[in-house]
Design a protein that fits this description.
The chain has about 120 residues and is mainly α. The protein has one domain. It has helices at about 25-35, 40-65, 70-90, 95-110, and strands at about 5, 15. The radius of gyration is 14 Å and the shape is elongated.
C-alpha cells in the first residue's frame, strides 16, 4: 500500500492529511472518493476515514478531559458519528453515502464551537 502526503490526489494510495476537517482536505477526499472504483481503492478510502476518525476522536477526548462545554463535546461526537457513518458506507462500496457524510460534516463545521481549533 502506498501512503502519500496531503498534496497527492492519487486515488490509488492512502493520502494522509494534517487536518482531515479543513475544507480543502474534504474537497480532496471527495474527489478521490468520486474516482474510487476498485476494491483496493475502497480500502484506501476506508483507511483515510480511519485517520479522520482518529483525529476527531482525539479532539473529543481532549474536550472531555479539559472540561469544555457540553455543546463542544456534543459537536465533536456529531462529527465523529458522521465520520463513522462515512467509513461504514465506503466499506460497503456506497460512494454516495460516504460522500453525503462529508457533506454533512462540512455543514456542521460551518457552526463549529469556539473551543475547536485548526488543525485538530
Amino acid at each position: 500500500m502506498k501512503i502519500t502526503g496531503r498534496t497527492d490526489e492519487a486515488v490509488d494510495s492512502v493520502v494522509w492529511e494534517d487536518d482531515y476537517f479543513a475544507t480543502a482536505s474534504i474537497q480532496r477526499f471527495l474527489r478521490r472518493l468520486a474516482q474510487t472504483e476498485r476494491d483496493e481503492q475502497f480500502l484506501f478510502r476506508e483507511s483515510e476515514y480511519d485517520c479522520a476518525f482518529r483525529q476527531i476522536d482525539i479532539e473529543r477526548e481532549r474536550l472531555a478531559r479539559t472540561g469544555e462545554s457540553p455543546a463542544a463535546l456534543a459537536f465533536a461526537e456529531q462529527v465523529r458519528d458522521e465520520v463513522w457513518r462515512g467509513h461504514d458506507c465506503v466499506g460497503g462500496h456506497d460512494i454516495d453515502g460516504a460522500a453525503n457524510a462529508w457533506q454533512v460534516i462540512l455543514r456542521l463545521l460551518e457552526h463549529r464551537p469556539p473551543a475547536f481549533g485548526a488543525p485538530w
